[in-house]
Write a structure and sequence with these properties.
Glycerol-3-phosphate (1)-acyltransferase, alpha/beta, 7 strands, 8 helices, seven-stranded mixed beta sheet
C-alpha cells in the first residue's frame, strides 16, 4: 500500500505542477512578487494536502507563538532538514512569505524550477562562496525589510533519520549582519518521508518552533552552536526511537 500511495502522490504532483507552473510564468509578467509567491504557495499547499490525503502524512506544529507578530518583523529560520516534505510544508505553515537560500541549479528543473525562478528568492552559486554570501546578505537585508523571512537549512543537505550533519554558520552570519533574531525549527519528516526514498509512509511529522534567539553581539559559530544544541536536543525528544537505534548501531 505505501508503494501505491507513493506512486499516486508522485502522479498528483506531476499532473498539477505543469499547469500551475505555466500559469505562474504568465502571471509573473504583470503580478507583484508577493502575489507570485502566494500563487506558488498554492501549489505547495496542493502537494501537502495531497500528501495528507494520499500518503496519510499529517503535520503537528508547536511553538507558533514564537514567531514574530509584527507585519515587518524579521527573522532567520534555521530548520532541520530530513526530506522534501519540510521544504513544501514550511511555506504552507508560515504566515509570512519565505525566501529560501538554495543552489541555482534548482532553477533548471522543468516546471518546478521555472516557477521558482519567478519568485523573489536567494539562489546562489556554491562554487563562488565569498560572492555567494555577499549576495545572501544583500538580498536578505532587502527581503527582511519588506517583511519576508529568510529560511535556511544549516546542515546544507538532507540528513538521515537519527543522525546529525555538520551545522554551518551561514545562517547565523546572515542574522548577525542583518540584526535579525534566529528561530530554530526541529522537524521529524524522515519518519514518514525518508531521505532520498521513493516510498513514503503515513504518520505524524512534528514541526517544533523554538523561541527566537537574539543575534546582536554574538559570534556566528557560537550562535550556531546554540542553535544546533537546541535543534538536536529537540530532535531527540521528538523522535527518541530513531536516535536510540542510531546510537546502538554506532556502539557495535
Amino acid at each position: 500500500m505505501p508503494l501505491i500511495r507513493s506512486i499516486l502522490h508522485l502522479l498528483w504532483m506531476t499532473i498539477t505542477v505543469i499547469p500551475w507552473a505555466l500559469a505562474v510564468l504568465v502571471f509573473s509578467l504583470f503580478g507583484s512578487s508577493t502575489q507570485v509567491y502566494w500563487m506558488c504557495a498554492g501549489w505547495l499547499r496542493l502537494a501537502v494536502t495531497g500528501g495528507t490525503v494520499i500518503l496519510g502524512i499529517q503535520n503537528r506544529v508547536t511553538g507558533m507563538e514564537n514567531l514574530p507578530t509584527e507585519e515587518r518583523g524579521a527573522c532567520v529560520l534555521l530548520v532541520k532538514h530530513q526530506s522534501t516534505w519540510e521544504t513544501f510544508s514550511m511555506v504552507t505553515l508560515m504566515p509570512h512569505p519565505l525566501a529560501f537560500v538554495f543552489k541555482k541549479e534548482l532553477l533548471y528543473v522543468p516546471f518546478f524550477g521555472w516557477a521558482m525562478s519567478r519568485m523573489d528568492m536567494i539562489h546562489i552559486d556554491r562554487s563562488q562562496r565569498a560572492q555567494a554570501f555577499s549576495k545572501v546578505v544583500a538580498q536578505g537585508k532587502r527581503l527582511m525589510a519588506q517583511g519576508t523571512w529568510v529560511i535556511m537549512f544549516p546542515e546544507g543537505t538532507r540528513i538521515p533519520r537519527g543522525q546529525k550533519g555538520v551545522y554551518k554558520s551561514g545562517g547565523t552570519r546572515l542574522a548577525i549582519e542583518t540584526g535579525a533574531p534566529v528561530i530554530p525549527v526541529a522537524v521529524t519528516s524522515a519518519k514518514c518521508w525518508p531521505r532520498k526514498a521513493f516510498i513514503k509512509y503515513p504518520g505524524i511529522v512534528d514541526f517544533s518552533i523554538g523561541k527566537p534567539i537574539p543575534s546582536a553581539g554574538r559570534q556566528p559559530e557560537e550562535l550556531m552552536r546554540e542553535v544546533e544544541a537546541w535543534i538536536e536536543a529537540e530532535m531527540h525528544r521528538l523522535d527518541p526511537e530513531a536516535y536510540a537505534t542510531a546510537e546502538a548501531t554506532a556502539a557495535r
